[in-house]
Design brief:
TIM Barrel; homodimer; 2 domains; 380 residues
Chain lengths: 380, 380
């Protein structure tokens, strides 16, 4: 994977990079909106382009079940199926299967699980997950890993870590022994596990780098640990990872979490927060969150965020969007989602511009001060 | 209201006209998508502009209850509240109140009804409905009328007809004695009632024309009568109405119904059919309707309608849209609505072009032959 470092921050580990895929280059730090089922919920590809979305995330588990691989293959892959011409990263399905508490059975071979739609039984092995992602045709595929919650005891974390490494090896084999189906190159990222245990994290990194992936993701965070632990593990991982490849922190996070991780050298992020919160009527602004259903906005003729250049803020008032939520007009879901996605894209774009200009710390501090911490800390 | 006749069809009563409002000119025949609660369901104003929507309809009853007049007034009227810069026509609320079977009480003075949201009691008089539409700031307001179902006996139809005429007189008085609130001219249309009784319809027209409105609507159709009766009443009304003012057939209808009425000289239409059907997953094509959830479309990589220039058909397959409906992604509702609204706009646009070119009958026959009658007849 072609990768360039565009700037390194002098005061922190923050960096601006660019990596290249067959569907376009991606400038980092970058946030990837989540398009679980072949759509970033409520948005069309046109909406994504207009909000400067560079790359989206698709969910292997969900797409495998619906619409299923036959249709995706017949369509020529997910890009073509959903009409999105930009890069796509797909997760491995591991996290979703891990979330199906009572419906899974993990063995060395792989994981057996039942569909949350109809209870039918399915089996994911590391090799099968590569094969599925060949059919989906994502630009970047993730390896199958075993996710554990935090905190987990050392024994549990060690077992999951060892299995994840064994699967990583088999995943890479599967990747190298197979070919892309749609005439463009795909890449594969490894996932670092090891819970909150630095020794396991370090071993995980060394083994994954020995195997050799196109990029590395920090997994197993944002699943119950403290912010301090998350920052500390993130920092340790970044310091020990190759500096000439993308680093992705999975499932993070709040605007302030993202800035903390950028400061520590992370390039890529994904989270359902901007899209899910939007559908609950909670919108992000530089002054903190706005719960648009609240009565205080009933006659508020300001935009969701003053000075925001998104379609929603340029055309509609808080009073109007509150009304749409109040009467269950689905346009409200889309307008709030457009704003929140724009907010996250703008956050990472501004972080990049600050890194390029050599003033990242200044930007981060100003952003964090304006953003109301009280509102933020309960948002996950 | 400035009104020009652009072309008269030689073989039928079809005509192409243009009328002018402060928010733009409208070329007829024209279909007005229904924006009940300050939004054409699932669409943004941008979507409407891109589909060549010229004028939309707002519902006085619904807007009066939610968001309520205070917010609309404070916003500077409905155009500003919902971010729509084109013309708006508002109904009088009569039809909605009439639909609230057990929640209304009609007297000579007006109609008392209970909100379907919270059961609170409200009262609409002809004068009050004008006042409400002054606050909404629609370009064209409709008078309060009493709607009856078809068939109704002569006695019921006569009583409703007489009350509607009395209210029409008071409505016009209220209109002439009040002023626009937002520095642009508003217009007012009268509504012809009289059920299926030609004598009542004729008397209704004569009395309304004596009062003098800016345009005339044919009400009380598409509420249970046969197609033959609807066509016959429509024809009779159009023949007796002034030819130098717009003629509006309320609540119609299917694509074929609209062509029948255009042939008889109607200029304006509204109906929830394209938008409501879209949300149920039923889309219109020139070859009839497509129920997109049907299993036959599971792997269908064609667009909803071959050759259609709408955003949906230019970018997505039937298989993809079926998938969105299948997994309850609200993007599916919007994509189907975009197509259906585009279909209706295209239908009336093509009818106009055919009238201008002197080949309306040819167009109507070709369209009707291709459009599958079997599918159409049960669609209402």
């Amino acid at each position: 994977m072609k990768f360039t470092i565009d700037a390194l921050d002098a005061e922190t580990s923050a960096r601006a990079t660019t990596f290249h895929t067959a569907h376009g280059s991606v400038e980092t730090p970058v946030f990837m909106p989540v398009g679980t089922l072949g759509a970033v919920k409520t948005l069309s590809p046109d909406d994504l382009h207009k909000n400067q979305v560079q790359i989206i995330l698709g969910n292997t588990y969900h797409l495998y079940l619906k619409p299923g691989l036959d249709i995706i293959k017949k369509s020529g892959g997910l890009h073509s199926f959903m009409g999105w011409s930009g890069p796509i990263l797909t997760d491995s399905g591991g996290f979703q299967v891990y979330s199906l508490n009572d419906l899974k059975k993990i063995t060395t071979e792989g994981v057996e699980f039942r569909s949350h739609w109809d209870g039918s039984t399915h089996f994911f092995s590391p090799e099968k997950v590569v094969e599925i992602q060949r059919i989906i045709g994502s630009d970047i595929m993730m390896v199958l890993d075993e996710c554990i919650s935090n905190p987990s005891d050392l024994e549990t974390a060690t077992a999951a870590h060892r299995l994840t490494l064994e699967w990583a090896f088999r995943s890479r084999q599967g990747f190298l022994e197979s070919s892309a189906l749609y005439h463009f190159d795909q890449f594969q990222f490894g996932i670092i596990q090891g819970g909150i245990y630095p020794d396991l994290r370090l071993e995980s990194i060394q083994r994954l780098v020995d195997i050799g992936f196109d990029g590395y993701a920090i997994g197993g965070l944002a699943v119950g640990e403290s912010q301090e632990t998350r920052n500390s593990i993130t920092q340790q991982c970044v310091k020990n990872l190759p500096q000439n490849q993308p680093i992705y922190l999975m499932g993070v996070g709040t605007p302030l979490d993202i800035l903390e991780a950028i400061e520590r050298g992370v390039d890529m992020f994904d989270c359902v927060m901007p899209t899910r919160n939007a559908r609950n009527g909670t919108v992000f602004t530089q002054q903190g969150k706005v719960v648009i259903r609240n009565a205080q906005y009933k006659e508020d003729l300001n935009p969701l965020e003053y000075g925001c250049s998104c379609y929603t803020c340029q055309n509609f008032t808080r009073a109007y969007i509150r009304h749409l939520f109040n009467v269950n007009e689905v346009l409200g879901l889309r307008l709030a989602t457009i704003h929140n996605v724009h907010f996250y894209m703008s956050l990472t774009y501004q972080a990049r511009q600050a890194i390029l200009a050599g003033c990242f710390q200044d930007f981060r501090q100003k952003f964090s001060q304006a953003y109301i911490l009280d509102q933020d800390k309960n948002e996950k």
